Amino acid sequence: MSKHTYDTGIIGNCAFLAHINKNTNVDWLCWPRFDSTFIFGGLLDKEKGGEFSIRPEGEYTTVQHYLENTNVLITEISPASGGKYRITDFAPRFYQHQRYYKQLMLIRKIEAIEGSPRIIVKCEPVSEYGAVKLSVNRGSNHIQYQGGEENIRLTTNIPISYIFDEQPFVLNETKYLAMTYGEPLEAPLISTVDRFLAETVQYWRTWIKHSSIATYFQPFVIRSALALKIHQYEDTGAIIAASTTSLPESPGSGRNWDYRYCWLRDTYYVITALNHIGHFEEMEKYFGYVTDITFSEMERYQPLYGITGKKDLVENILTDLAGYMGNQPVRIGNQASEHIQNDIYGQVLISLLPLYTDHRFVFSERKDSVHWIAFLLSKIEHTIDEKDAGIWEFRNMANIHCYSNLFQWAGASAAEKMARTIQNQELIDKAVSLKERAAAHIESCYDPVRKVYTNSAGSSNLDASTLQLIMMNYLDPNSQKAKDHLAALEKELRTPNGLFYRYLYADDFGKPKTTFLICAFWYVEALATVGRLDDAQREFGNLLQYSNHLLLFSEDVDEEDGSQWGNFPQAYSHVGLMNAAYRIAMKLDRPIFL
């Protein structure tokens, strides 16, 4: 089999995300929110998923790229019969009237580049995950699709009959398609779209200019930053793991998950990445989302929440959809929301630490400090001796996980620092005590014979998550213990091609068949941290080959052929790349002219 890559790019405006295939089809678009039903879902079912394509008659080839430093996607189509045309796809986003304009509007601009190509526009949105076909009503210059939660309107200067009848026509002038959800576009089509495009391009390029991105593999970090940005649901500040659901970790594995939610376990990594590139606004919004959950969650934290903080994420299987390349099941919701993951209390404490260490926050924003520091420390205290599902969310396996206790140790360390800032000795004493208890659990995972920390107490299994012992300075990076631990992990979990398995022991679904990409970026960070900088640079450069044609990365990579699998693009793979590049750049610390 040939190498599998995802042939889509993403566009978005922090209100929605869409996947545009190289074949011009909108393969994935959920409206009105990231976690809503798809309007176009050809990614999971080419028959029931609807279609929005702009194809020529007969055979054709395509190339796809982003306008530099933007989330505006260009697809160029070359029909075998001659001619050439360009589609510019974007979601409008810019600043006006003292707020960001980010309407639920997908815009497609079609321009002839060479000759007079003949094209066919097909637009068939659906609802209720393909179970409902929308009724179609013709207007003078628009088509209305009804039967879903809200009306969908396609406004265009293409003759309506051509779209209705899917009739080929000659592209002899620039054509515009503006699809809206709920509120229609009432303004003049052509001038409005051209203005929206210019202002959206300007917004993204300004956003990148205001980013602190080192020169080390800068194009990859820029693309990762742009991808991460549009995975944030600006209304609440939540950042989702991916915009897709049910893309398999490997063909036939059954490991097909809905990733359109916010995992608290990734809080530390996300905030670190945003901080590295100097985007305080996004970090603050995400911080606000986590804080809202903190103040509303009086019981146990869930590992993940909906983008509005919703707790009830019941997992359902849609039996009527074919699945990606026939891979079943198709899942909506995620049962992992019911799991016990005890690292998340430490994650939240670390995420709140900038309030006390970053002077861009003002003192008044640290209100109720004693209450919620004490609250979160009490959560650690009540769970510190408890078995949990661990970072990888084992469904039927509970252990005292090294990684969970590491974040309890780190969270207690953060709490100690915060308590010292507000000069509360009682909280200082409690935090120090919990640090010691967490460290005792971590040490119970140490194997002195192999000189490595195992995944959990009493286990001989190794786990890539324990790389964090080094990056989080639980282990002194300059110590022999840290170097031995890294050497043992890379001996067992690193692949010949430089990828990294999460683990190689059997879980609820058997042994994993693909590597987890963020673990490879963690490995790069660990190499840089212990001073193996040449190795870190070599391994980092090697990992970049596993992107698709647009520098977008998946969740999983097949060691055998480098295929992309898992949900795509995975925000946390891009976070891993950003953090690894930053770690190397800081270690290099050399003048730009050298």
Automatic annotation (TrEMBL):
Gene3D superfamilies (alphabetical): 1.50.10.10
Keyword Disulfide bond: no
InterPro entries to which the protein is assigned, alphabetical: 6-hairpin_glycosidase_sf, 6hp_glycosidase-like_sf, GH15-like, Trehalase-like_N
The organism's place on the tree of life at top rank: Bacteria
Start and end residues of each GH15-like domain: 220-582
Residue ranges occupied by any Trehalase-like N-terminal domain in the UniProt entry: 10-155
GO molecular function, one term: hydrolase activity
Pfam families, A to Z: Glyco_hydro_15 (PF00723), TREH_N (PF19291)
Keywords from the named record: Hydrolase
Protein name, entry field: Glycoside hydrolase family 15 protein
